[in-house]
Specification:
Elements lengths: L1 H5 L7 H12 L18 E2 L2 E2 L6 H14 L5 H15 L6 H15 L9 H18 L3 H23 L3 E3 H7 L4 H10 L4 E4 L2 E5 L10
């Protein structure tokens, strides 16, 4: 987003979150843009009910403070917890998912790491169930594993685009390495070959050697 490039931050703040929401919801929900839920503005997504609106601002301030104060915690654990708790609070009337995912990439950018992309198919199969597991059982293992695989893929994407003379589909790579497409795709999904998704298709450095792969 152009706003983030033009206004680099050194940390996540409540003000930044509200600014991002204001930009995102402009001309969509002007009445709710750039502010947290208040009064009787309850929200429900599926079986989940967002936090009591009268406590939303306090919850968000506390979440941001904890995130910025926990310097000794593993960075991805911090990001995963922040995102899960943000979605659990559901601080806005609308736009919570988009702002939450945008924040993930702002947090990664502050660490000079590439953005992660959550494919639409993965949202229903992995992402939403992982958030539900946190909401119901306060468990983050599933979401942590999901984010870790997405970040590995993002790193593969950045490195390959910077270094590979030629990038081909994983299906073509599998054929030239006498490997079944299904086997190669499974390796890509697990992150055990340096593949990444582009417009719904798995891609890889054409010169990546299959014999370097280790189970």
């Amino acid at each position: 987003m152009k706003f983030l490039l033009d206004n680099p931050e050194t940390e996540i703040t409540v003000s930044l979150i509200l600014q991002l929401h204001s930009i995102l919801m402009q001309n969509i929900r002007d009445d709710a843009a750039g502010r947290f839920r208040t009064n009787k503005e309850w929200v429900r997504v599926g079986n989940h009910i967002g936090a009591n609106p009268q406590f939303v601002h306090a919850f968000m301030s506390d979440l941001v403070e904890k995130y910025n104060a926990s310097d000794d915690q593993y960075f991805l654990d911090k990001i995963v917890y922040f995102h899960a708790e943000f979605e659990n609070i559901h601080p806005f009337i609308d736009g919570n998912g988009r702002i939450g995912r945008l924040q993930i990439n702002e947090q990664l950018d502050l660490l000079n790491l590439p953005p992660i992309l959550i494919p639409n198919k993965s949202k229903n199969e992995e992402y939403y169930p992982a958030l539900e597991e946190y909401s119901n059982f306060n468990k983050l293992d599933r979401l942590s594993d999901f984010f870790e695989r997405l970040l590995i893929e993002a790193l593969y994407r950045r490195i390959t685009r910077l270094t590979a003379p030629r990038i081909i589909s994983v299906s073509d790579w599998a054929k030239q390495n006498q490997m079944s497409v299904q086997s190669a795709t499974n390796k890509a999904l697990r992150g055990t070959i340096p593949a990444f998704r582009l417009r719904g298709h798995w891609m890889i450095d054409a010169d990546f050697q299959a014999e370097k792969y280790e189970e």
